[in-house]
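Need tokens for this chain, all 218 residues.
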Amino acid sequence: MKKLILFLILLIIVVVAVYAGSPYYSAYQLKNSYENKDGAAIAAAVDFEQLRPSIQSQLTSQFALTLTQYPLVAELGGEPLKQAADEFIEQAVDTAVTAPNVERLINTQGQANTATKELAAAWAIASNQVDLRGLIQDLIVQRGDVDAVIQNQIQAIMTKQANELEQRATQGIDNTPTSSYCGINCFEITGEVKGYPITVEMQRDGLVQWKIVDVVLP
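Here are the structure tokens for all 218 residues:
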């Protein structure tokens, strides 16, 4: 009887350890997959239906905040400027945040492609990385043609961001990521990838499996 009780206690300890340690093992697998350029494994660990809306919301909210810092730009561009930027952000996220593109991005270790360049441009627009002086000049020269102005800015930003992505392509994970529970079914990994600070949130998918459901952009 005592042996049975001891066995049951040991079994419970093992189950609890596996349950509690599962996200750390998942994080270890993700790191190995990144270093081994195994894009398929990382793409399979992502819940894109949750990730896409989150990234889009982050970018559109950040752009709205950036726009409040430049009332002249907001006045000249008005609602068409915001709508054009939001549409570009939505299209960039829908194109880039997909399993095939994530797999390709990991396999090439960040080599820029069109979808990635557009997402980088969307991040730059939202994060106040645009040439605001040039934006104002374009708005005046184009006589308020917001679509033409946005296209000019996007091309310039995509070129700049593509060059930066290519320069960072040889870099990997810059430091040892930190990880911790953020809830019983929530786990966060924080670190830097190619010089960018990144926080990845994972959610429990079953007992020991985990899915990436959010990425907090820098």
